[in-house]
Amino acid sequence: MKRVMVVTGGGDCPGLNAVIRGIVKRAAQEKDWEVVGCIQAYDGILREPTEIKVLDEKSVAGIHVQGGTIIGTTNKGGPFAWPVKNADGTYSFIDRSDEMIRKIQYLGIDAVISIGGDGSQKISQSLFEKGLNVVGVPKTIDNDLSSTDYTFGFQTAVQIASDGIDRLVTTAASHNRVLIMEVMGRNAGWIALHAAIAGGADVCLIPEIPYDITKVAEKINSRYNKGRGFAIAVVAEGALAKDGTMVYEKPDEVGYENLRLGGIASKIMKELKAAGVEADMRETVLGHLQRGGSPVAYDRILATQFGVKAFELVLEGKFGEMVAYRHPEIIGVPFLEAVDRPNFVQPDSALVSAAKGIGISFGD
Fold first, then answer.
1. From 135's CA, which of 4, 66, 126, 356 has a CA 20 to 30 Å away?
2. Residue 322 in contact with residue 136, Cβ under 8 Å?
3. Helix residue spans in 223-331 (DSSP H)
4. Cis peptide before 138, with omega less than 30 degrees from 0?
């Protein structure tokens, strides 16, 4: 039997299980292939004892409707930066990639399918350069990979954010309030932009269009007459003022390298008060609600297509490639192309123009 190992790395995302199911069900049509899952990204291989599990059709039955991942994930450490605790309590990071590749070969694993975002795929490229047979699947709710039209999980995050706006509208109208909703997306404003249009927000602030708080205040005030009215603002966690910076904290978790974004909604509320907005204001941070729960139908379908295509790339020996959606086809693109540049909202795009056409202010 030939063996393919599936890895889910980085943050969790609606649709991960649908990808795993797609891989397993496609592999089941080939009588000489077995699928195994590595627990918590590559950690399962690096740990002693090894933590991998056989994935067959029975074990993946019905998981396409479930959020999360049945094999776990992590966004800390990894084969190139494995944390080791020193005697004084500090940590050092060592490269265990060569050791991991030897262990993968010893276990009779012929190929690896790595499901993850840009960070995970950069690791995939490095492992491929070291001789590992690896194929990638793009995963991020942020939709910030330029080599694919969409990433699975994005539409679910947008739906959750849009539902949030729908609920905030009724309470904002009841109390004549300004409600500011902060959504994920890191350096990309895709979730905020789509949700603002779908939910009918009045203001949308995204990283790609730095805002002028006086113009945001003007839009908010225009929604009120003699103290009556309400307004909804959707703010991407990476949004920033002109000549300003993103709001973030440096993490203190061992092995976690990303800046922890968050707090921009609170900052904007204070700025609006300072700019003279007298309306009652509240903030709502959706946070990890956008990453949890059952994926919408679109993401289940896209994730399934990605899973099937990933295994077919393995069959064809097209290693060093990541699955991508280029309408209407599901194709493979080299890792170097996949992680070459991020996918950001273009300020002059048709979608931004449409949002401005219905009166949404970007504070520019």
1. 66
2. yes
3. 264-274, 297-315
4. no
- Minimal CA–CA distance to 293: which of 86, 106, 15, 61? 15
For strands 33-38 and 2-8, give the pairing: parallel
Whether residue 211 contacts residue 236, with contact meaning beta carbons closer than 8 Å, is answered with: no
Provide long-range contacts, Cβ within 8 A and 24+ apart, for 266-270: 268/180, 268/205, 268/213, 268/216, 268/233, 268/235, 268/239, 269/180
Classified as helix, coil or strand, 327 is coil
Q: What is the residue type of 55?
A: L
On the question of a cis peptide bond just before residue 49, with omega within 30 degrees of 0, the verdict is: yes
CB 124 within 8 A of CB 91: no
Half-sphere exposure of 104 (CA within 13 A, CB side): 31
Q: Checking DSSP bridges between strand 329-334 and strand 321-326, what pairing results, if any? A: antiparallel
pLDDT in tens, the chain (364 residues): 899 999 999 889 999 999 999 999 999 999 899 999 999 999 999 998 999 999 999 999 999 999 999 999 988 888 998 988 899 888 889 999 999 999 999 999 999 999 998 888 999 999 999 999 999 999 999 999 889 999 999 999 999 999 999 999 999 999 999 999 999 998 999 999 999 999 999 999 999 999 999 999 999 999 998 889 999 999 999 999 998 888 877 776 766 667 778 889 999 999 999 999 999 999 999 988 998 999 999 999 999 999 999 999 999 999 999 999 999 999 999 999 988 888 999 999 999 999 999 999 999 9
Structure tokens at 246: 């993103």
Nearest CA-CA partner of 307 in 13, 12, 17: 17
Answer whether 0.90 is exceeded by the pTM.
yes
DSSP assignment letter at 152? B
Residues with a known catalytic role: 142
| Nearest residue to 290 via CA among 113, 141, 80 | 141
